[in-house]
Amino acid sequence: MNVLIPISVAIIALAFVVLVFFLARTLKSLQGTLDNVAKTLDGLETQLNGVTSETAQLLHKTNKLAEDVQTKADSLNTVFSAVQDLGSSIHNVNQSVRKVTEKISTGAERQSENISKAVQWGNVAINLWEKWKMKKSKLESSRRKQYQ
């Protein structure tokens, strides 16, 4: 039994050395991973500062654009008011034209018999004019024949 204790202590010591060796390797690997994570976080911090700066500039430009759009929208309100007034004026003119047209139409219906007589007399006058022109051209052609 005396030999067994020193051998057990030696095995325990050897197991402890192996455990410490593998634990040291694991911790060294973990240290490398943590170094990489630290470098990545430094890069992200730099990029985040750039994005923050660009976001602030974009927000400033957006505010300027919103002010410009508001100013232009306010100036367009006067244009829309003018267009609305123009539309009202055109509507009034259209109503006046309708009233005049109705009066003319009513008058034309009353005068339709006189108008039809005037058209008939106009047709008679046109027919007489055409006959006179034909007669005149016949006279001229007969005179030409006589001189030839």
Structure notes:
It is rod-shaped, with a radius of gyration of 55 Å. 97% of the residues lie in helices and 0% in strands. The protein contains 2 helices and no strands. It has helices at 4-110, 112-147. The model has no long low-confidence stretch (mean pLDDT 87). The chain has 148 residues and is mainly alpha-helical.
Overall outline:
rod-shaped
The profile of the biggest β sheet is: none
List segments where confidence is low: pLDDT < 50 over at least 5 consecutive residues: none
Helix count equals: 2
C-alpha-based Rg, rounded? 55 Å
Q: What is the share of helical residues? A: over 70%
Secondary structure tally: strands: 0
Separation of termini?
Answer: 172 Å
List keywords for this structure.
single chain; 148 residues; mainly alpha; 2 helices; rod-shaped
Task: Explain briefly what this protein structure is.
This protein is mainly alpha-helical and 148 residues long. Helices cover 97% and strands 0% of the residues. The longest helix is centred in the middle third of the chain and has 107 residues, at 4-110.
Topology:
Elements: H1 4-110, H2 112-147
